[in-house]
Amino acid sequence: MILARAPIILVLPALLVCAGTCLPALWLVLRALDADPVELLDIVFRARNALLLANTFKLVALTLAIGTAIAFPLAWLLTRSDLRARRLLSYLVVLPLAVPGYVMAYALIGLSGYYGFLRHWFGVSTPPLYGLWGAALALSFYTFPYIFLNLRAAFLGMDPALEETARSLGKSRWAVFRHVTLPQIWPALVSGWVIVGLYVIGDFGAVALMRYEVFSYAIFTQYSGAFDRTYAAWLSLMLLALTLAALRLQRMATRRRGFARTGTGAARQLRPVRLGAWVWLAGAGIALVVLCTLGLPLTVLVHWMRFGLAALDVAALAKAALGTAIVAAPVAALAAGLALPVVLLSLRHDTRLARMSERLAYLGYATPPLTFALAMVFFSLQAVPVLYQSLALLIFAYAMSFLALAFGPIRLALLQIGTRQEEAARSLGASPARAFGRIVLPRLRRPVAAGGILVFIMVVKELPMAWILSPTGFRTMSMNVFARTVEGMMAEAAPYALAIILFSSLFIGLILKYEGEGRS
Amino acid sequence: MKTTVLSGIALLGMTTIAAADTLTIYSGRGEALIGPLIQQFEAETGIDAEVRYGSTSEMATLLMEEGDASPADLFWAQDAGALGALSERFADLPAATNETVLEVFRNPANKWVATSGRTRVLVHSTERAAEDLPQSISDLSDEKYRGRVAWAPTNGSFQAFVTAFRLTQGDDAAKAWLDAMVANDTKVYKNNGTQIEGIANGEVDYGLVNNYYLGRYTAKDAEFPVAQTHFAAGDIGNLVLVAGAGIVEASDNKDEAQAFIDFLLSPAAQQFITLQGNEYPVRTGIIPAATLESLNTVSEISPKVDTNTLGDLEGTLTLLRDAGLL
What we know:
The structure holds two protein chains of two kinds.
Chain A: H1 8-32, H2 37-44, H3 47-80, H4 86-94, H5 101-111, H6 117-122, H7 131-157, H8 160-168, H9 173-202, H10 205-209, H11 215-224, H12 229-253, H13 279-308, H14 314-348, H15 352-366, H16 369-383, H17 391-402, H18 407-417, H19 420-427, H20 432-461, H21 464-469, H22 477-485, H23 490-514
Chain B: H1 2-12, E1 22-27, H2 31-45, E2 48-53, H3 56-66, E3 74-77, H4 80-85, H5 95-100, E4 113-125, E5 149-151, H6 156-169, H7 171-183, E6 187-188, H8 192-201, E7 206-210, H9 214-218, E8 226-229, E9 240-247, H10 254-265, H11 267-277, H12 295-301, H13 314-322
Parallel strand pairs in B: 1-2, 1-3, 5-6, 5-7
Antiparallel strand pairs in B: 3-9, 4-7, 4-8, 4-9
Helix pairs in contact in B: 6-7, 7-13
């Protein structure tokens, strides 16, 4: 530990994060108190909720398993092997992040069925993939890049000397992997799991299309069928309790580990592993992943475009793109700017505030967006009615909701940078601020930017909050997509969905450039 | 660059404390259908209108959360259930407004007015279910239909149908039907559109939906393998439902909101909704959508249920929960 007491410059942003992200939970408690005890027992503690919870667990587990099975080999191949065009391939496997969930679900459903390619090309109409497997595949196909990015950064940042030393001491490849590599990438893997797992818990779009009933289904029903905020609040609180349990697990799984280089001199560049004849298998695997996770949704969109292109209003598209940028860019900057102090506090000053702000940020991320937005409606009308339905409030709400996405790259970079060089600077007489500013901060620029872009891409494609909180008449691209799909007009929505993917694809290259210190 | 930054900053502070003569509409109906109507309204009346689009339930929940502070002047909802749930927050409409619309669609309490009508229908595969169609929803629990029928228990229109079932035949009968349908392996879908796609995909052969969805598929594809029909006259499966609008009590622009409602009920707007949306007009003298049965036939075969009582959802939700559907 370098600093005994947390400096105010870290404490203030952390306090702001605490305040912003605890609002939904507070609002939920307020609403929950309205409940009538008899009905409460009826709705909240009925057997079906247990079934929905069990389904939620299954879905999270399967999604993480599929996501890891895709991401792990990819991350290794694209950082450690002598595969060619690794930069381009990395870009292609991160691109599915930009695909909106409903598009991915439709793509899988559309693979077979009446409108499907199978019928189109071969005349076979088979019932589509539904249920647990359908939902897990759809979700993992566009969330696996979170796991990939975490693993990639971990692989790139690792000091090769450790593995080489272990090998030179006679350990087998497997033993090196098990005892040296895995422990080093473990925190990155777990933080990828948390981001994907919490997303899956709160998602409703893809699971509803896949007809798999999970816990978010129960919450949705309360709002949509009963217009009932009270019981929806109880169910949301149960969801948040689940999130807290998951975070506790994460903490237990990654406690107290050091990953920084302790040796002197510069880390050696790793010599890539020669794939030899295996290159064909690797290439085929990567091609399959790109085909499924990117080719499939794009083909479905183009398929729909045949009908929808005529209805495209270019001026409206431009206005929506501008609206998206005006919201997403400040959200990304704010979220990344707040994530840095929170992560710093939690890594270096294991205080109650640090733990709380980090945990609350994850809670905000896991809160169903509609719940989050309604909480913001309530508090802004109470406290700052002037800001109600202003862009400022929308940006604040989005930043609070997606802040946790920026944690991964920043946390990993800080762990890998370590504290030794900074301590050396301090021992030479530099003030704590100066040591940090000269030694750590320059190396944090890229991870902070990478974190910001992850937030940016999420804001571009997600929407429920924009419906509730944006100024009336304000438009983003995702709002335009939904305004059409809600009336069942998939073809008319397709150009906007495609625009979302293209728009985000411009920024995805930057994540790769900024994460893992650009070496690849 | 500098101007972009400046305009960005200006936009940040932009709020919707709208000018007094701007009408703020919360719409549960999608923009693709509603957008052209709004433009027409602005051109005709000179009143500026701003619309917040979302799903009906999101907008209804938002209105409840906002309470008296709501910036909304008018709520346009996809179903009577949402309008009923918000009745307390609506201003009274002049009695003349409801007198404009056909009797089947009227809201005697004058809290809201129907803007279009729709009916519940049976959609079926043209390949696997073309002949010997069921005559009543109660037929669908026969062994013959096991695993072949789709429904959408979370859908507002479906819930309104269950409410009407309870009101006409009693809770016990409704529960018995739901249980029999569940036991017959009826497949749960998200909404109306996905049921129709499910039939085309070959997953199921029948579905219980509203009348205006199928037209969106058949308009693009004449060979789309799904058709729709009604049950026998008087069956609850033919229930008539409405989309409608109400003026928010807290509004400062009630006159403009009333002007919008009058516009929606005008022959031109009704004609647009009828043809563009495949729905039923709420007044006479409108050319009907070619693909639909006539409104006269529909009012003859639909069961007599007071649409106002469909706002009573509690019992329906309890029933659906007891049946393990929600």
